[in-house]
Amino acid sequence: MGLIKVIEQVTNPETAGVPMLIVAGKLKVASGVVTIGGESLTYTSTASTIPSDKSLFDSWAPVVDAIYGASGPSITGPVILDADGGKIYPAIA
């Protein structure tokens, strides 16, 4: 079982919350929602436009690919930027 550390949003997409661990699994991206295993990470931005699904997939694919070969207890998910370069954090369901 591989774990990925993700920082969830608090009050809005630009405010970092506490880190949490999710179990790695199959990666799927559709309409700004990144699904890893049984977890859905939804990206939104109050200040700008979120990255394309392809860009989100390209950001997460190396994380999911590497998790099974990682030497540590978890690997940190990527930093996602909106179109204006601001960091945004996912809502996790």
Task: Describe the structure in your own words.
This protein is α+β, with helices and mostly antiparallel strands and 93 residues long. 16% of the residues lie in helices and 38% in strands. Strands 3-4-5-9 form a 4-stranded antiparallel β-sheet, with helices on one face. It is globular and about 35 Å long. The model has no long low-confidence stretch (mean pLDDT 88).
| Annotation, overall tally of beta strands | 9
- Please write the string of helix (H) and strand (E) elements: EEEEEHEEEE
Please state the structural category.
alpha+beta
Spatial ordering of strands, largest sheet:
3-4-5-9
Q: Assess the beta-strand content as a share of residues.
A: 35-45%
Largest sheet: 4 strands, antiparallel
- Mind telling me the C-alpha Rg? 12 Å
Helix proportion: 10-25%
Distance between the termini: 20 Å
Spans of at least 5 consecutive residues whose pLDDT stays below 50 are none
**Contiguous helical run count:** 1
Mean pLDDT metric: 88
